[in-house]
Amino acid sequence: MFKLITGAVAGTAAALLLAGCTSAGPASSEPTTAISAGASHAPTTISVWTFNHLPNEVAAFTAALNRLHAKYPWLTVKFVPNKDDAAFAKAVAAGDPPDVFVASAPDNVGKFCANGTVADLGPYLSSAKVNTTATFPAATLVYTKYQGKQCALPLLTDAFGLYYNKKMFAAAGITTPPKTLSELAADAKKLTVKNGDGSIKTYGFVSRSDYNANRYIYTGVQSGTKFYGADGKATFGTDPKWQQLLQWDKSLGDSYGPGNVQKFVGRYQPHADDTNNPFLTGAAAMEFDGEWHIGEIDAAKKGIDYGIAPMPMLDSASGTYGAGDTLGTVAYLPAGSKHKQEGFFALQQLTTDTTFLNTLADTVSNIPSTFASLQSWDKANDPHWKPLVDMFKNPGSYYKTLTPAGEEDMDTWREFLLQYEQGKVANLPSGLAGIAKKIDNSNAQAGN
Amino acid sequence: MTTTVARSAGTVSGAPRRPARGERRRHPSKTRWWVVLAFLSPFVIGLATFVLYPVAATLYYSLTNFQAGSYRPVRFVGLNNYRTLFTQSDNFWIAVRNTVWMVVIMVPLRTAWAMLTAWLITRVKRGRNVYRTVFFLPHMVPPVAAALSFIVLLNPVGPLNKLLGLFGIGEPGWFSDPAWSKPSLVLMALWAAGNTMVIFSAAMLDVPRELYEAADLDGAGPFRKFRSITLPAISPVIYFSLLTGMIYAFQYFTEAFVVSGSANVEASSNELIGYPARSLLFYSTELYQQGFSYFKTGYASAMAWLLFLAIFAATVVFIRASRRFVHYSGGDR
Amino acid sequence: MTGRRHALGRNRSPLGRRLLYGLAEHAPAVAVALCFLLPLMISVLTAFMTQHQAGTGSLWPSPWDFGNFRRVFTAMPFGRDLLNTVLYAGLSTIGTIVSSVPVAYALARLRWRGREAFFLVVLAAMMLPAQVTSLPLYVFYSHIGWVGTLKPLIVPSFFGDAFSIFLLRQFFRTIPGELTEAARVDGAGELRILLRVMIPMTKPAIAAVGLFSFLYAWNDFYNPLLYTGNSQGGQTLAVALTQLAKSGHQNAYQLQMAASLMFLLPVLVLFFLAQKVFVEGIALTGIKG
């Protein structure tokens, strides 16, 4: 009897095993003829997913999509906010991806491009006669292209800078924002204010890598340090600037006394983007953040007098001051979409429509990502925005090379940073060499 | 309504079981095979589809570079995934270490706490049911809701730290501090240990009072009484609690995932797993990240298989080792 | 323990002694009870705080805000997610009972070769963590288009659940064999014996198994996260609650707590209605490992 059952069970299992392993091939390729804006088209509903989730962002998207629908009544968009890359990957694996996916950062462009999750937009762009280099600034094409394939298009872009409280600067007798990291550390120490009981009331600058947007300090762009060398290998073990950057970070963190930076991060990390943000409450005199922070500061209406400057460079670097990480939101056309033509049409409208880009840029407080929209944008000369827009135009600005392992390199790097910051890396040079090897291995494995 | 349950609950202390064995000897007739198969069929199909097939497929996947959802061809890579796990992944070892920490620290503490609270309950004479209800209540709170409550309670600027501040005790960062995050989860596990407490208190109340009274006459102290009367009576419960706790800790997921994810609302989902600083990166959360965020299905399958083997091996070792220590009265085993 | 009564309060009045004794008896238990209740009290109080006050460490709401429970319904599709949770928990409970009872009966009362070996398989399946099987199952469910629906959560429960089978078998074995034998002698078929003799006698046990599987599904986080966490129409509350924190309502602790309490309420009601079944059912799970 038992044999009978085990036999039946094993048989069924084997049959299922064979059935389950036949992997689905890529979605059948369709001819890529562009949908012309003027022609009529059969009514189609597509789904657009985005990472955006704050109510004002969702409202801006919804308004833009409604305008799109009014202009092209055949196109109805089912809009789904609050979807991150992992959720998208899950939908792809489940065989039911959206028709357009807007991701917050380009880290996975290389991965999605390499493994065929998203379509190469090249054929669509050429049949729609979109000249990418004439439409999108070069900095945005760096992070949307992988090995020659245009696998995504930029949809607004980001630049990161050092926010500083002018009133606190004046009180500490500091006249200009720091240009080198040692100046930044010296200013941070001057700006740090203690309470009567010895606890810290105001932190000059907290550089710990897991706080807010600080991870982008450690891509090395400000000092011209390249994440990957010309051979495509991570440079942590070979470029001495990484050691200098990390040592600067740790000595600044340690200067606050044991446990204080941890306390700061624990207390404020959940509030990095709301009105209890330490820069807004006065608990931090400087903060490194993306341009969306301008919008958050405006919305809080606390009347803070602040300035934005490029993030300082290493003392050993020269001539790189003013450069920064430039990366931004990217829009994908998933390869498994059932409405690729219509999906691309919507993608094209969203990424190139000047009115939409400008409205959305103002709502979510980002930088528009086409030449046309940058030109007609009213913020370009605003004193807060200007340094960031300049950074975006700076030829020294870039984003680290994309890899087929997606965001794993940044994840691995950030974990290492945190370990070092917490004093768990005994030997920094060998630790850096080890982490470079690890990242190279993971890229090599993902690549084949 | 409760007669059956109550009667069987009585077997805790080893009241003689129903003579199922003797009865079998009297009627050795076998049920016809097709009747048996009919009774078993739903489960046999389920076993094949939802257990045996996945276990076999996981083994197969683990030998390939399969990425669910990706269109690149699936290649057989031998033991590559296992090699990567053992030699190239810190995450893997950190996850193993954190999980072992939970098995070694959380599980015994939870058992001891359940025992202590059960003893407190047996000590009170009036209002025992009220206490039992209150002690048990937290166990009824769904893990997700419990985790969210604890995030509020243990918020670095939250109520508990405010209370601790009143007494001048330091204010730990709880879930935001890598040094405190796992102990905070232990606190949560202790809070919800009501089910084990109930089992302990049932076992303790089943010990005949005469045994204690006899020990009193012999002049035995409380420690001796505990060691030679209470402990033997509750040793099967300790065993059960440690065993199930161990299996549970091996797959510890929900609380860690929710705490990491909600304590840090700003980050994107990949950054959340293990937050803060991978101190809450457990085997299951790492498996989830590799398998369902990065969709490295082959690699995650290797992890899944190792988990399967580890649980199996640990259970066998545990059962073997505990045979010497567990006292079953009534000759059940 | 019995010696204490003589040692304590020899020189006190009977009343004083009783008080002191009562204090010694209850003080530790009351202290522990307060610790157990603290997180729940904080949750309840936070649910009545304003957005401004929640999460600041205040213990007492001022002013009291009774609108949070209403606001949960606009902040998330609470009603829809509740319905999904009820569907998952309800249907999978029915499925588990219907499919597990016959298997448990076959293991407890029918006699066939390989029964003990099969029981070991059930025990092994019981220990198998969901993480081990979920990778191929995810691929399988996505092939047949089930991901994003409640089907992967509900359908498997109709094919027997190892833990329930194990528990039911333990229950069934406590029923005197004479009863089933008598029915067998009267010529009743096994199905009839199961339906007419076994089930009526083990109703409380089946109720306990039903409660356990209902609670399991109600509380389940891993499976819904995997299969419906991403879907637009099919989330369950356990997953939806964690996403409430991340959908533009950062640090809206008061909403989270209000939603958590609404999520918890049905469980508590169930608990107080069937406390005995619960506690005794749990006591039973711990006996024969």
From TrEMBL, chain A:
Keywords: Signal, Transport
InterPro entries: SBP
Taxon lineage: Bacteria, Bacillati, Actinomycetota, Actinomycetes, Streptosporangiales
Protein's name according to its UniProt entry: Extracellular solute-binding protein
Organism in which the protein naturally occurs: Actinoallomurus vinaceus
Entry annotated with the keyword Signal: yes
Highest taxon above the source species: Bacteria
Family of the protein in this entry: Belongs to the bacterial solute-binding protein 1 family.
Pfam families: SBP_bac_1
Signal peptide per UniProt: 1-24
UniProtKB/TrEMBL annotation, chain B:
Keyword Signal attributed: no
Domain ABC transmembrane type-1: 96-318
InterPro entries the record matches: ABC_transporter_permease (IPR051393), MetI-like (IPR000515), MetI-like_sf (IPR035906)
Keyword Acyltransferase: no
Source taxon at top rank: Bacteria
Record membrane topology: Multi-pass membrane protein
Subcellular location: Cell membrane
Main location: membrane
Pfam families in the cross-refs: BPD_transp_1
PROSITE patterns: ABC_TM1 (PS50928)
TM ranges: 33-56, 100-122, 134-154, 185-207, 228-250, 299-319
Annotated spans, Disordered: 1-25
Keyword annotations: Cell membrane, Membrane, Transmembrane, Transmembrane helix, Transport
Family the UniProt entry places it in: Belongs to the binding-protein-dependent transport system permease family.
Protein name: Sugar ABC transporter permease
